[in-house]
Each structure stands twice: as C-alpha cells, then as structure tokens.
C-alpha cells in the first residue's frame, strides 16, 4: 500500500493532528502567537516525517485538502481553548503554493474560519514567495480580501524564494518570517550577520513586523533583540507542542 494511499485514508479518517510552535515578542517577553504544524501519528508513538509526506501530498493532489484539514483542526482546538487564549494571541497556519493558487483559496479560508465562529483577527496565513509569485496579481487580490476580512498575512521562509524587492513592496503583508538559514551562522560568520541585519532592516523599512525562524541559541536570540527583530520562533524558545499543552505553556511563559 502506498504512502499516498495511507495519507488519503488518514485524511478521510481524520487521523492527522497539529502541533503548535509558540512565537515570542522580544521587547515584552510575551508569547504572542503559535504556528500550526501538521502531524501524522505513525501508530507507534511517533510521527511520519513531514519532509516525507508533504511532497507526496503535493504530488498526489492532496495538499489542498490537507491544508484545509489543518485549518479546520486548528479552529476546532481554538474553540476548545476559548477564553484561555490571551487577547491578541494569533494562530498561524500554512498554505502550500498549490493550495494558494486555487481560485477559491481565499473564500475557502474565510469559510472555514467563519464556520468556527472565531474572530478572523485571531488568525494569520503563512504563504511563501513562490506561492505569491506564481500569479502575482491574482495573489495580491486574494491577500487583500483576506486582510480585509481580518486575517493577518506573513511571508514564510523569506529570503529563500525568488521574489524581487520590487514585488515585495507591492505585497499586502503584515509580517516577514525570515527563513531559518539566515540566523544559523550569525554568531560565527560576519557576512551572515550582515545579511541577517539587512533583512531585518528591510522588514522594518517596509513597515512590516519581523519574525526570525529557527532561533536555536541564546546568542541568536540576543542578535535578534539587538538588531530590532521583534519576534522569534525556534527550538531555543519552544519546540512545537501538542494542542492540549498549549494553554499550559502560554500561562507558564515568563
Ligand atoms: O514541523 P516540521 O519541521 O515537521 O515541518 C516540516 C515542513 O512541513 C515545513 O516546511 C512546514 O512548512 C511544512 N508544514 C507543516 N505543517 C504544514 C501544513 O499544515 N501545510 C503545509 N502545506 N505545510 C506544512
Ligand atoms: O516551512 P516552515 O517555516 O513553515 O516550517 C517550520 C518548520 O521549522 C517546522 O517543521 C518546525 O518544526 C521547524 N523548526 C521550528 N523551529 C526550529 C528550529 O529552531 N530549528 C530547526 N532546525 N527547525 C525548526
Ligand atoms: Mn511556516
Ligand atoms: Na518558514
């Protein structure tokens, strides 16, 4: 039986779940949000690697269904967290490039969030440069609709895609999520540090919030703080946690 077949079954049987990785605002040391990341239990206490099944979902035409499933799952958990989520706490979800190109992508996202009864401003869509660049004007239209509805938009894995700065200026965004490759060597490589500083400055210049992904050391965290990057996400702060742990983690954060 193929992995694709198993994934199809898992989606139909709702066997997939999410974990949530907290995001922290440096200036106030506050947890301001969390990113939903899909998890597929392997039946032996672990999970099937995302690196293994996400590409299969993309090739097999299942990724759109998967992304919608993840958003519905996130909404269901958020409803159960209710008022335990601090005011302003934002829940982000990923949309694959293929899913984002669907002409009804924005409507589908609004429908799922609308059905949950939750406020749209609780949510943040993460799209990659690739997703936005494929049909730029259609993408802009979708992003404008989603933002008008109240959903925040971040550009994920920033710096690894192929959008030019001229295009970046035209994108209706709230946040740049800087790809984790840019923080990796800032403590040991002067050129790396210069590039990371330039990217943070670029975000600030464009009036966008800047979040550094993949922060794994205290030194990297201090680098972000020192250079005006407002938010961080990474193993040094928190690994992704199961949904029933999120509220505990939020309330223990200090
Ligand atoms: O959490 P983890 O390191 O296992 O995620 C690996 C990859 O899977 C990352 O590139 C991440 O963007 C991707 N991913 C995680 N959750 C989702 C999701 O809900 N939808 C899509 N399209 N990709 C996801
Ligand atoms: O592509 P995207 O940025 O959505 O993927 C997020 C992925 O990064 C998830 O798979 C998550 O588990 C992983 N991740 C989160 N924090 C860290 C980190 O500090 N280091 C590394 N190597 N991966 C991380
Ligand atoms: Mn992401
Ligand atoms: Na990312």
UniProtKB/TrEMBL annotation:
Every EAL domain range: 1-254
Name of the protein described by the UniProt record: Diguanylate cyclase
Lineage: Bacteria, Pseudomonadati, Pseudomonadota, Gammaproteobacteria, Chromatiales
Residues of the full protein shown: 348 to 601 of 604
